[in-house]
Structure formats: structure tokens, C-alpha cells
Amino acid sequence: MNESVFIKGNKYGIKINIDSSCELNDAYKELKEKLISGKKFFGSSSVSLEIDYKFVDEKIQKEIIKLIEENTDLNVFCVVDENMELVAHPDLLKKEDDCVELNEILIDKDKLISELKHDLILKENQINDLKESLSKAGGNIADISSKTELAENLENVKSELDEDIEYAKFFQGTLRSGQQVKIDNSIVLLGDVNPGAKIISTGNIIVLGSMRGFAHAGATGKSKASIFALDLRPTQLRIAEFIARAPESYEGSGASIAFVENDGIMIDKIDKGLLKDFVLLK
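Below the sequence we write its predicted C-alpha cells.
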């Protein structure tokens, strides 16, 4: 039997080659058999997916992703082309008026955070009550011991709360013209932001590549947010309500960071001094 489907690995994920003469239903069947037989070999990880066939549409992407995730322990986090540029994501990309909006599917931690905050408030109220009682009674060893134990419990709760809150989301791939990333966290993009693309975050924006599009950090009004890129040449920058546009002759300044100072957006080259002042935003 001649093989029509080939699965290859690369440093970011997997590539599936389907012979152009092969019918899709036959290709799906052969792919499923190969995925099942190679399940242990593939292991468990998040991977990018490249599909090489005579034509690839959203329906084909979804069917192949479904086959991969149902028959292996792999999780497909994005679909890329032969140049490793972002094409689509099964859950994150949504088409609206020819504009692709990227929204991370977040694990719902609201209930846990709410419970921790409630516990924190209760413990703080208990400490305040103890302080008041000690002040009135002059204090004794038992009271001080209870207060110390309560304070330790409070610190443990604060530590749990801090660990539970995520500071940034990571994405991989190049944002091309017409694509948009929008997320309620800081964001780290492993790739470029091309002219015509947008990246919007309620926290910081870190682009480990070239930033040549539109970037809006601190979108909910956080003026302490900043925008970092290895090559910062944006069409427009926004931090909270502050806006800046690059001059037409601006050619970039290498690895740089943009931040708000004196009611305006400043851009400086990265050095150790600036990094010490970098603020982690939730």
C-alpha cells in the first residue's frame, strides 16, 4: 500500500504532508492510523501545526486538529505556514469583518481568587480585632501568640494569592496586517508585529522580535505599563490614555522600551538600570 500521509517534526511542532492526489477521507483515515500507532512516540506537549496539501481551508484545519487531539496527547496551539507565520488557531482566532482577533482561552480562576481574597479580608479583620483587644487589655503572652500565628496564616494566604495570579500570556508567531491580539494580561509575543497588525494588552507588552505595527499597553488605564521590543519601530504606541507616533524618518533604536514619563511616552534603549524599574503588571 502506497503511503499518502507523512508526519514530520520540527523544533516548534509537527508538519503533515498529504499527497495532492489523495482524497481527504482517505487521508484522514491514514492520518488517524498513524497518530494512534505513534501516540507514545509523539508524547504529550503543545505544538504548532503546518499542513501541506493542494488546498487548506478552515474545515480541513479543524478536522486535522480534531484527529490529532483525539488520538494523541498533543495539544495544537496554532496553525502556521511554511514560513512559520501564524495562520490560525483552533480556539484563539476569530474572524470578524476580515479582522482576526486573538483571545487566549483562560483557565477560570475567578472563584479561587475570590475565595482567597475573602479569606484574606477575614484574617485582616481578625488581626485588627486582636490589636484592639491587646490595646485595651495591655496584652498578654497568649494574645501575642495568637496574633503571631494569625499573621503567619495571613502571609501564607497572600503567598497563595500571588502564586495564583498569572502575570503574562505567551504567544508564538508573526502577526500580519489585519491580525489583532487582545488580552487581559501582560503578553509576550515570540515573533514580529508587522505594519497593519495590532497588539493590545491590559498589562505590559513584550515583543521578542520586530514591533512595526500598533501597540496599546495598559489598555484599562494602567500608566505604569510599558512596551518592550527587540526592534521597536511602531506605527503608533499607546500606554493607558497616552499616544505617540513615530516620525516618518524614524528607523528604530534596537532593543528598546517605551514607558510613560512626564505625561508623555518616552522611548529608551534597554539597559540594566531601566530593567530594575520594570513593573510586573497582573
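The longest strand covers residues 46-52.
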